[in-house]
Amino acid sequence: MPGPDGLELQEAIGRRGDSLPVIFLTAHGDIRKTVRAMRQGAVDFLTKPVRREELLAAVRTALDRQKDDESTAGWRRELAARYALLTPREREVLARVVTGALNKQIAAALGTSERTIKAHRAKIMQKMQVDSLAELVLANAALRPRAAGRGSGG
Q1: Alpha-carbon dihedral 108, 110, 112, 113, rounded to 10 degrees
Q2: Beta bridge partners of 24
Q3: Would you state the CATH architecture of domain 84-144?
Q4: What is the pLDDT of residue 1?
């Protein structure tokens, strides 16, 4: 096929930030290419001739992944909109809360009272629409850029 090969195309898609699921179908696959493709997030790496069931299973997996990615992207957009509602001070408090710092420690670090930190925490929980510290930590982690590629669990 003229132009970029499949791995180059997959890299270009990744650089653009697209979350298109990729299935490789090749007559000339090798372990090095397969590993590279999978580390970059390929759904599957199939070698011709491929059985119909195997190809259909890969397509189903790709469609499921796309649906999950779209759902996750929507959730991240919602979180970003909620985060935008936080004041700069609430963002400072949030950054310390998610590290496990106690109200007393945060108050001392920010030069304010423990009561003020409790009030900030309550507003943060309300604005972020979470009910627990665990949910807040998860939401905060989801707002942070992920490591490159899907090989890191994403």
Answers
A1: -50
A2: 45
A3: Orthogonal Bundle (1.10)
A4: 60
Residues 61-74: tens digit of each pLDDT: 999 888 888 888 88
What Å distances lie between residue 36 and 11, 14, 49, 96, CA to CA? 10, 13, 21, 38
Parse the chain into domains and list their residue ranges: 1-73, 84-144
For domain 1-73, the CATH class is alpha beta
pTM for the full predicted model: 0.56
The residues near 91 (Cβ < 8 Å, ≥ 6 apart) are 83
- In the block, tokens 């590629």 appear at 149
